[in-house]
Amino acid sequence: MLHYSCQVPETSPSLEPGLDVRFPFKFTRRALPLALAASAIFPEAYSAETERSSSPGSSIVLDAIEVQAAPDSPTNSLDPSSTLSGKELMLKSAATLGATLQNELGVANATFGPNVGLPLIRGQHGPRTRVMVNGLGTHDASAMSPDHGTTVESLLAKEIKVLRGPATIRNGGGAIGGAVEITDGRIPEHLPTKTKVTTQLRFNTNHDERIMATELLTKAGQVAFHADVHGRESNNIHIPGMAIDQDAFTQLFYVPSPNNTHGYTGNTNAHSDGGSMGISLFGEMGYVGMSISRYSNNYGIPLGPAHCHGPCTGNAAEADNVRIDLHQERLDLKGELFLPWEWLESISFRIGKSRYHHDELSNGIQQTRFQNDVTESRLEFTHALHARVSGTLGLHGIDREFSALGIEAFVPSTSIDTKGVYLIETIDLNPWQVELGLRKEQVKLDPSPQTVYFGPISHTEVFPARKLAPESYTLAVKRMHSTGSITVNRWIAKRAPDVQELYALGPHLATRTYDFGNQDLDIETLNGWDIRFQQRLGKLEGNLNLFKYSAKNYIYQQNEGLYETDAAIPHPVMRCANPATCLITTRHSQQDARFHGYEAEMGLPLHIPGLRKFRASVFADQVRGMLDDDTHVPRLTPARHGLLIQAGMGKWDGEIRLTHMRAQKRTGTMPMNDEIVLEPGTDSYHKVDIALRRSIEVPNWFTGDLFINMRNITNAEIRNSTSFLRYYTPELGHNIEIGMRIDL
């Protein structure tokens, strides 16, 4: 295959010569005409007149561009949200996006071993929680299955915003449960005042994790350049006690596991790396930019009972060494034109083209390849219809080609076409603020025939195409007062079922399940309320969110018992003679559901001699989910509460976080001896974390930070109730992360 090599010219002394990022030629060639068109739209940007680029008038224009680039973020609305940035984000950054956000109120980490962590927002994740980078989706396979990681390196994020509650108006049905918006600056939105180089180095004692990330931002005239590289590598994790919970395992399979380890979880090592290059061209009325990036991650799935794959006979191996080897290449284009009209302030566009694939390997042999080729585009018109009325009209499209190839291709190759139009209007009636939103969407799914294996027997399954038209509406009202505010959100959000929910049929190697889809699934509708109180009483600060969701046709993955694979014709069984030949059967089902919960935080800053910025706060959150048949929604988080103490002394800042997670006994159900019983639950635990940071500086050379994160100091055994693998491995034991950040 022809490849295009993007080489930094030696005439750019601020960039590192020889930095080589390779992409398929077809992937890049379509961007070149757009770059040439930009030179026609912004001819003044190619001027080499130094006086003009540094004139006062030019500086004023650039300041305006930097401020108005904010429409990138969907959280300019009244939705309940929280933001991580700066030093706080640096300290919380972790190996996965879910681990980075797990201490945010209303957010949990849906793990699948230490190398996969997806944000679970108010009990919603997967195809209900959309992860976006710079306004567009990540377009990996993380929404399809809990064992698929995201293609996000949180170490490079400048800001991460979490939208708690439906974010479907701007982002589509995939955000019916919430959204995570990551800003990484790979396409510069303003000209930097000087060249800046940032490097981070980290080491974790638990599993010898080594991390490095370096970024460069510079300019030449009216052109800004960005480049970054990153890598991380780790060994098997250390844990307290045994990896497999034998009591829970026996309850599931009726026999104990023959494979177990003490003090560590096998096959949990990982290696990831990647990088990007970006460029933006600025003119007097706007900017246009592009970036190319790549990401690779090879990680193991914790060891468990083996099973044979596809058509097989005889005895299965003792244990599968299952790994995921994923790769993504991506091209992004972004631009914004600022207009002099009051009724139309700006026009912005985003285009992203992604090529993603991952292989699921068993003992080094490829069993299945997942491919996801996606083009996503967004065009937005920011307008002001009146002095008190402003908003955004947007067009949104996603063209997706998904395929699964190999022995365990449990989802057919499918073309998915999504088109949407949305409108968001904000009315400012100080002290009142009202926001209205609506979205019309059309989703088409066209699957190809799929060969399905039943032991030595196979047949071709033909799946029906589907066409659905979900609609979403929102209303938010905020009332400001002298000591705080009250905000009420009302949502009617809808989503179409995803490809795996409709068409799954076959064994899934990494999750150790035999999955069945449901071709008759209908549109899922979420009716939601959220009331948010923000209050200050003297020095006391408080925040309280109360939410209630009523879901119609809620789609969930139901445990339906065991499936014997090592037989002439695989079939359901009541008991498993050998766990190495059995899979848990899951089926995507649909019924009404209801959710409710809260997030609360109260903080008090105090003056203590010798300390600065001392603040003590308490926090708590909870979500409950019930299906219409009065059974519990599976894999939800239990209630948690805790204490956070923050303080500074000299050049040091630190915090102590004490978290108590209650036991989760409200689990999903499974069949047992002709009865429906609860799945095994998880025990309560206490977790203690300490973070320390010290500012460092060498005048006229660099500034930076030294930091130490001590997590799970008491070495508590933590079984994550949101994880499919909670019976196979606990979370990391005690670990110390030592890091350094340097800004040149």
Automatic annotation (TrEMBL):
A single Gene Ontology CC term: cell outer membrane
User: How does the record classify its membrane topology?
Assistant: Multi-pass membrane protein
| Pfam families with a match to the protein in the record | Plug, TonB_dep_Rec_b-barrel
Q: Which one GO biological process term can you cite for this protein? A: siderophore transmembrane transport
Main location, first listed in the record:
membrane
InterPro entries named among the record's database cross-references: Beta-barrel_TonB (IPR000531), Beta-barrel_TonB_sf (IPR036942), Plug_dom (IPR012910), Plug_dom_sf (IPR037066), TonB-dep_rcpt-like (IPR039426)
Location within or outside the cell: Cell outer membrane
Q: Which residues form the TonB-dependent receptor-like beta-barrel domain?
A: 316-713
Task: Name the UniProt key words of this record, in alphabetical order.
Answer: Cell outer membrane, Membrane, Receptor, TonB box, Transmembrane, Transmembrane beta strand, Transport
Q: Using the record's annotation, list all stretches that form the TonB-dependent receptor plug domain.
A: 80-179
The highest taxon in the source lineage is: Bacteria
> Mind telling me which Gene3D superfamilies this protein's record contains?
TonB-dependent receptor, beta-barrel domain (2.40.170.20), TonB-dependent receptor, plug domain (2.170.130.10)
- Any GO molecular function: siderophore uptake transmembrane transporter activity
Q: Which PANTHER family match?
A: TONB-DEPENDENT OUTER MEMBRANE RECEPTOR (PTHR30069), TONB-DEPENDENT RECEPTOR NMB0964-RELATED (PTHR30069:SF40)
Which protein family is it in? Belongs to the TonB-dependent receptor family.
Protein's name in the database = TonB-dependent receptor, plug
